[in-house]
Amino acid sequence: MTRVKICGIKSHTEALLACRAGAWAIGEVFAPSSRRIEADRAAAINRELGGSVVKVGIFVDEKLDTMEYIIKTCGLDMVQLHGQEPPELVAELPVPVIKCFPVKGPVDPDVVKRWRPWAYLFDTVVEGHSGGSGVSFNWDYLEAVLGWDNLILAGGLHAGNVAAAVKKIRPLAVDVSSGVEFAEGGKDPQKVSRFINEVREADKDVT
Ligand SMILES: O=C(O)c1ccccc1N[C@@H]1O[C@H](COP(=O)(O)O)[C@@H](O)[C@H]1O
Predict the structure, then answer these.
(1) 0.95 exceeded by the pTM?
(2) Is the Cβ atom of 83 under 6 angstroms away from ligand 1?
(3) Secondary-structure percent of the chain, ordered helix, strand, coil, rounded to 5
(4) How far is CA 190 from CA 167, 180, 186, in A?
(5) Does 157 sit in the ligand 1 pocket, CB within 6 Å?
(6) How far is the CA of 70 from the centre of ligand 1 (A)?
(7) Residue ranges of the N-(5'phosphoribosyl) anthranilate isomerase (PRAI) domain (predicted)?
(8) Catalytic residue positions?
(9) N or C: which end of the chain has fewer CB within 10 A?
(10) Residue to mutate (ligand 1; options 58, 101, 137, 151; most atoms within 8 A of CB)
(11) CATH number, domain 3-206, options 3.50.50.60, 3.40.1390.30, 3.20.20.70, 3.40.50.300
């Protein structure tokens, strides 16, 4: 079953919405973004959620000690590194790491393997954005890593394209932020639920 991560959670209501719709993980952004959340707010949300969902903190070129502090105070289960972090940093973090690789062309497995993360996340490159752009990339660029069991697909996914993505890439998980939001921002319950339903339907064709 393809896992679903709903990223850019900013409130308890949004976190509950993602959990009830069947998300495997929620993402909380601790980096410059319209979706940024303060650590004390994330900590309060995560305390109330308990262990019902995987809580992932998103960082962009953050200092190790700052990440360690936020992981501890917010009870994060994983971190997602979305910047230019070096491979050595992955081993220094106290929780499993999802490393984001911006896709500019065909992915070279030998290059990305140097990070040895828990999962490899592939996202679109958009000038001026570290992530959360809402823009998709050419999935053909993932040809050399197809079949990996720890691949997460991100970048411009929405209910209209996620089924095709699941069938073509067969990722461990799909990650979405913009594609399940209202035009003015904030998670849209109907879009979240439609997105997850599309993934579940696509799963039926994949096994
Ligand atoms: O969501 C953000 O604002 C964000 C900010 C900085 C780094 C990563 C961010 N989100 C991640 O970006 C991708 C793609 O998101 P989208 O669906 O295209 O909006 C995804 O991995 C999010 O976790």
Answers:
(1) yes
(2) no
(3) 40, 20, 40
(4) 23, 8, 12
(5) yes
(6) 19
(7) 4-197
(8) 7, 123
(9) C
(10) 58
(11) 3.20.20.70
